[in-house]
């Protein structure tokens, strides 16, 4: 067995061991939704449950649209794969089994990253280094020990890409490999809809690099055959859940951003790119590659000047690059959970969210590609750049940061490609004759130690604490790496290249620090919520619970969970009154109950707070006016 394989096997065993010890609490409402779907399938074999929406018409019972109401009843907005497989795992292994889906997907992604690197660059050292960077220098660990299936998406996307590239680059078993690629991609869609973003990448790569039209047809047909089964299954399930045969639907709310109409102008850009690639392909070897690329860019620039809609898309794209790639503190989000912090930081529901460059300052080294000689690996590098460009495009033009979280989780499937590309570029810098391999590796190592230690000291001594380390220090490192890498690519000064290697090491060390702190904070948050599934044991049925994602309440008849969705994050008073009239016990967190009863004098707190997580009962107050109360909309103060 090759040494690189042995290293990854050892790391995989360690990941599995850690997975047996991490917290089983939920991190966010998204994970509660996934758990609800899995529990529903475990108990009923279906996707429909009762959270009281038919009994009490209130948006609070839909959890702000996460639990939409379909033609057959209430269901979840996420794809059904986690419900089906998760239901079986919950039955067999309880919550730990569900969490291990992502642990094993992370292990698989490690080996797929290595295989992709070997396929594209034929270098075992690059393959191993890229795999290690993918795991240790990014925010992968936070999602490896989680319920939401992001790592399943990473595994599916990159395995599908690997199978497709084997068919495209070697031309052997084209139909079979493409069918397997389509099948893996389709299975990924059953867990996360963003997996579909690989499809335009595959289409463009097929247009650009296929050698013979017979192979183009074989790849296309094979992919369609493999993809067809999961897509038909997804469409059939959605027809029962949502009343639509759209396999990409998130239900009536369409909160997943999968409504095609919302991407009209952006779709024009993709169509234009496709047409441009076809045109450059038809020009063939008669025109040099650089000239073809320049013509394509020139035509796109001319279109941007002449077409206002396209110009708007490009401006939005630029804004997205600033916010999602360079500095998340520049994001404009008017929701209540997004608040300014100290030293120019921005907190997202208490978390110091980072742009991609802030999470991974080492990706700045990619700007060295501007001047480095890479004709010998042109095809491999273009494949990775095209994947990165197409995948990030819809998120950047929408400036969609993913809501609650410490990083840009929607870019997770790109981490293998980014790790591979950054490793290759760094290796090319190390190959400079003016720098010995030993000296270069020492610079990277010293930089790694400096980066992690400086980030730690910044956290300890900066007024903004960890948020400042995440959003300020990381930005400085990313910008420094990017500028120095660009200059060394253009000028190739030996002294500058040594400095770049040191800075890349600092960027890697900072990325390790960011990943470790993200994972630690995530585990603290999960540990705080670890007791939630069992806290309803003492509640009498029936009960309406506000703002606590109790798993036991979600699977118990006549126990309902509501998440406030109105102004000021207060419970719907109409729902509270209707529940009291129906003789339900109404409970909510003590702090929420005090604000709610001050805002609506028709209600009062009954008794004293109870439970480890203090909750209070809400009843009608003595001043309740039955005449006004009979007309629920007039209840508001």
UniProtKB/TrEMBL annotation:
Q: Which UniProt keywords apply?
A: Cell membrane, Glycosyltransferase, Membrane, Transferase, Transmembrane, Transmembrane helix
| Domain of life per record | Bacteria
- InterPro entries given in the database record: LipidA_mod_glycosyltrf_83
Could you tell me the Gene Ontology terms of the biological process aspect for this record? Answer: lipopolysaccharide biosynthetic process
Where found in the cell?
Cell membrane
- Listed GO CC annotations: plasma membrane
GO molecular function terms noted in the UniProt entry = pentosyltransferase activity
Q: Where are the transmembrane segments?
A: 98-117, 126-148, 154-177, 189-210, 216-237, 258-279, 291-307, 355-374, 381-398, 410-431, 443-461, 473-493, 500-517
Span of the signal peptide: none
The way it spans or sits in the membrane comes to: Multi-pass membrane protein
Can you say what this protein is called?
4-amino-4-deoxy-L-arabinose transferase-like glycosyltransferase
Give the species: Silicimonas algicola
């Amino acid at each position: 067995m090759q040494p690189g394989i042995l290293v990854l096997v050892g790391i995989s065993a360690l990941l599995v061991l850690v997975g047996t010890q991490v917290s089983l609490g939920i991190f966010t409402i998204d994970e509660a939704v996934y758990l609800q779907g899995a529990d529903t399938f475990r108990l009923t074999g279906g996707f429909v449950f009762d959270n009281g929406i038919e009994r009490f018409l209130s948006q609070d019972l839909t959890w702000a649209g996460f639990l939409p109401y379909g033609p057959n009843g209430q269901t979840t907005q996420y794809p059904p794969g986690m419900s089906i497989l998760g239901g079986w795992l919950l039955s067999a292994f309880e919550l730990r089994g569900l969490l291990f889906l992502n642990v094993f997907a992370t292990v698989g992604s490690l080996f797929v990253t290595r295989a992709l690197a070997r396929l594209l660059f034929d270098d075992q050292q690059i393959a191993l280094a890229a795999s290690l960077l993918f795991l240790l220098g990014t925010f992968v660990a936070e999602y490896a020990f989680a319920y939401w299936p992001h790592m399943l998406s990473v595994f599916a996307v990159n395995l599908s890409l690997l199978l497709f590239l084997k068919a495209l680059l070697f031309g052997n078993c084209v139909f079979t490999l493409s069918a397997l690629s389509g099948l893996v991609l389709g299975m990924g869609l059953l867990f996360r809809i963003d997996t579909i973003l690989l499809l335009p990448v595959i289409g463009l790569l097929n247009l650009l690099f296929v050698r013979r039209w017979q192979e183009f047809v074989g790849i296309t047909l094979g992919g369609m055959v493999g993809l067809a089964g999961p897509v038909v299954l997804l469409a059939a399930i959605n027809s029962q859940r949502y009343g639509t045969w759209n396999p990409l639907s998130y239900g009536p709310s369409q909160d997943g951003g999968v409504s095609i109409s919302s991407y009209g102008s952006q779709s024009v850009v993709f169509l234009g790119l496709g047409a441009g690639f076809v045109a450059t392909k038809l020009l063939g070897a008669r025109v040099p590659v650089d000239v073809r690329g320049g013509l394509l860019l020139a035509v796109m620039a001319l279109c941007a000047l002449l077409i206002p809609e396209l110009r708007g898309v490009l401006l939005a794209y630029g804004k997205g690059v600033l916010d999602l790639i360079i500095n998340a503190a520049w994001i404009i989000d008017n929701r209540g959970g997004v608040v300014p912090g100290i030293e120019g930081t921005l907190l997202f529901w208490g978390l110091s969210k980072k742009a991609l460059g802030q999470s991974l300052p080492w990706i700045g080294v990619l700007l060295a590609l501007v001047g480095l000689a890479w004709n010998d690996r042109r095809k491999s590098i273009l494949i990775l750049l095209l994947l990165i460009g197409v995948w990030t495009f819809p998120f950047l033009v929408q400036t969609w940061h993913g809501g609650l979280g410490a990083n840009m989780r929607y870019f997770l499937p790109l981490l293998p490609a980014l790790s591979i590309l950054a490793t290759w570029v760094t290796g090319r810098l190390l190959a400079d004759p003016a720098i010995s391999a030993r000296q270069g590796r020492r610079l990277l190592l010293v930089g790694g130690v400096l980066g992690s230690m400086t980030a730690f000291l910044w956290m300890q001594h900066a007024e903004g604490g960890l948020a400042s380390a995440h959003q300020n220090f990381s930005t400085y490192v990313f910008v420094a790496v990017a500028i120095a890498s660009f200059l060394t690519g253009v000028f190739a000064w030996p002294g500058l290249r040594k400095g770049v290697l040191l800075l890349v090491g600092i960027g890697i060390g900072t990325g390790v620090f960011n990943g470790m702190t993200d994972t630690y904070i995530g585990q603290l948050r999960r540990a705080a919520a670890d007791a939630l599934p069992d806290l309803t044991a003492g509640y009498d049925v029936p009960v309406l619970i506000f703002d606590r994602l109790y798993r036991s309440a979600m699977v118990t008849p006549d126990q309902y969970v509501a998440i406030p969705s109105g102004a000021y994050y207060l419970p719907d008073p109409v729902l509270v009154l209707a529940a009291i009239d129906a003789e339900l016990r109404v409970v909510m967190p003590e702090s929420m109950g005090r604000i709610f009863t001050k805002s609506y004098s028709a209600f009062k707190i009954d008794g004293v707070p109870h439970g480890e997580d203090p909750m209070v009962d809400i009843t009608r107050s003595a001043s309740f006016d039955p005449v006004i109360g009979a007309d629920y909309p007039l209840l508001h103060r």
